[in-house]
# Entry
Amino acid sequence: GCYHLALGVESGDDETLRWTQKGVTRELARRAVAAARAAGLETEVNVILGHPGETAATARKTLAFLTELNPTLPAIGPL
# Structure
C-alpha cells in the first residue's frame, strides 16, 4: 500500500511557476494536497529556492505557500 505522496510544487510564486513551464499552479497544488490527505496519504511538498530571477520577496512567497499547504514533510532544495 501506498502511504506517502511526494509533490514537486517548485514555488509559491505565480510568475516563477509560469517560468518553470511544468503546468503547476498554486490552486492545483492545493487540490492535490487536499486529495492526498482525503485519501489518508502522508504528503511531501518539494519546493526550490534560487530560481533565476527569484527575489527575497518571491522566496518568502514560496515559504509562506509551503506553510499554507502544511505537508507532512516539507522539503526545500536549492537550485
